[in-house]
Write a structure and sequence with these properties.
By secondary structure, this protein is mainly α. It has 3 helices and no strands.
């Protein structure tokens, strides 16, 4: 993984961090559930919740990046290009 040399933050980052910390806590619970011999159904449900939280954090990060960084890079766009960009942003919801 490469690391950029400058700070790169957006308004959504605190919310993403909050979601990831919540997922981290749930993941610790899942490990404890496995170690404690809890039923597989309970473990699977918790794992699903962790996975969903991480997916939502990733989606938020990508959409925020598109909203800010990509538009800043490409600058002003014509009507047709803006529509293409809007479609591109919309499809990221299915990541």
């Amino acid at each position: 993984m490469s690391e950029e040399s400058h700070e790169h933050t957006h308004d959504s980052h605190p919310e993403i961090i909050k979601r990831l910390k919540r997922a981290q806590g749930h993941l610790k619970s899942v490990i404890a559930m496995i170690e404690g011999g809890r039923p597989c159904l309970d473990i699977a449900q918790q794992l699903h919740a962790v996975e969903k939280a991480i997916t939502n954090a990733k989606r938020t990060l990508i959409q925020d990046h598109l909203d800010h960084c990509l538009e800043d890079t490409v600058g002003s766009l014509g009507r047709e290009q803006r529509q293409t960009m809007a479609e591109f942003k919309t499809i990221t919801k299915y990541l």
